[in-house]
Amino acid sequence: MLAEDEFLAFDNDLGDFDPDYDYLDSYNEDFDPTPPPLADLSPRRAQDARSMLFENYTQTLRDGLGAGGMTLEDRVLACITYMNTMGINVELFMTALFWGDHGCIVNPKIRHERTVFMNSTSLRSILERWWNPPTHDHASGGKAAVREFVMEHAGEMLEEEMHDATPSFRLPEDSNPLLHENLTTLNFRHFVLWSIYLKACGVPARAFDVLHTLGLVMSHKWTANAFAIISRNALAETRKAIRTHPYFGSHDNLNIPLRVFSQRLSNTNHFINASAATIYILPRDAFLPPEMAAKVKESRRERSKEHFPFESLYVTGEPEADSARSRVAAQARYRILRFLLESPAFANYAHRNDPCMAAPPPTDLLPCGPDHVTRQHILETVEVDESTYDGTDRLCNNVWLSQLGYTSDEEKRTIGQRWKLVWVGDQLTVERMRGMIRYRYDDVNSFERMDFYEPHFGWFHATMAFANSLHTQYLGTSAGIGLRKAFETLGRKGLMKQETKGVFWHNLDEALWHIGEAHFLSLWMEVAGVDDLAALTEITPERLISLSDEIFHAHASREAIHRLDTLTNRKRDEVKQQMVMFATDLLPYFDLREAMQIGDVGRMEDLLPTLLFRFAGGSNPKYTIEILELIQRLRWITFGAIAGL
What we know:
This protein is mostly helical. Among the domains are: 4-35 and 48-154, no CATH class; 189-235, no CATH class; 310-368 and 460-643, no CATH class. Helix content is 54%, strand content 6%. The chain contains 25 helices and five strands. It has helices at residues 49-63, 72-85, 90-97, 102-106, 108-118, 122-131, 143-169, 180-184, 189-200, 205-213, 220-242, 292-303, 319-341, 389-403, 409-418, 427-439, 459-474, 483-490, 504-528, 541-555, 558-565, 574-598, 601-606, 608-617, 621-643, and strands at residues 247-258, 270-281, 375-378, 421-425, 453-457. The protein has a five-stranded mixed sheet. Helix 16 links the parallel strand 4 and strand 5. It comes from Dichomitus squalens.
């Protein structure tokens, strides 16, 4: 056994020492009766004759481990006991065996055993067990020491590899690195592309410097200069395009976070409230007549003397309004039919291409093709807050026009007298522009009065407002039949509370399509009196058209709502009334989404009265004003201007 002063290094409390306890193993480790795994004897790589000789020597000893009735544990314990009698432990033995002193180095027997071990197949498995011992508590292993050893020597190996590889990347001493031949033989395209991409992703300057030092990207200074050149060239292309094509613009606010790595009083993290604008280049056939601006001004002046006939939006007997309502109803009936035709049960329907089930003709479909592509040009982002009237004034009357190249007094005079520039934005942007126009109505000339601007809300924002209005009206409760119940049944998260940022509208739009499809497919089975949609595949196309008309008139129209409203309280089915209202309000939303996707501006115009009543009844006065402004321009002001051409 060890003397007392020899095990003081293991524990300072002599009373707690147990000579039979392995202080490198875990406290709570359960006893494992199985012996530790031996080395994998299958050769990992081709062995030479010398290694096979050492392996045969070890294999002979391994085959005799079970002789004499002694187990592997007994043999190891006997060795440790003998080492203790000799005044050494495993650590001292291993230190001496592996080149401990001169005697251990030159002794033939010790040298032979050391060579056998270093060339054995067990060496790798022993290292792996040191790294990850087969115990419950890995802290008893030597992973920390092995990891530190690996990290130190991996760096040395990397330095050696880089030192050996350096001559391969050097030019000959008699070569001039600035020669045209040497410069053009290097391909910097990948470095340039990665630099532009990472700069666009917002990689910090210090990260750029690290990547540049490693030789992966260009320098941050070069990338910043490249962006400046790209911006100047793009602006020149924009100025060239607007001289030969019609166009309109849009802008919106932009928040840019600026981060610093060494904060001081004059150098801190902060947000920049900026504005970004886009110019949309239209095909040449979208040019307006040269005298259109003057005609619009004249029409607005004449039409302002009388009231707009709002009754024409909802009363019957108006040919134009009745025609628009019939087109909206036709699209609604076809949408109900499409839900059935696009269901899996009708994938192989024989009469899918029957003429009676064709889609209604488009109302006013925009042309498409290579000659009618709309191109986008992005203007330079500026640090101006567009949410204020001062910021809107600077953007509309100075910044954007300067970037477009209109800076001289003569050009401004031409803009004020002959231009009509449509400018699109969200509701706040359009409201600020319209407010600036009203505020400057008494200025000296048409440019200062901003007469050339035609603010217009973005249809995407209007669609989002439409969906939010449906969400507000039909959310309901978990115990009812509203959208909340459907969201919980479908497992849709994050749809209980409206949000402006993020993917709320995308998720809501997807949920409305799924819920609407399920609702109308259920109506198909109820009206047809079947339990499976597959039973409807045997029905003729004429019968399907008749059923779709019945579904529309009885379960998804204003007439159906009116019939339910006229019933007495005792006969009224409130659940059915709620579902009929939901289906009736959902069909125009689907119609608007599809009309925007295919570019049928006539269908979008037909839906304006529906949007007006939706926003007016849904407590959204801002978009109510926007829809009214658009209706008045289309049917009152612009119509009068076109009639005067």
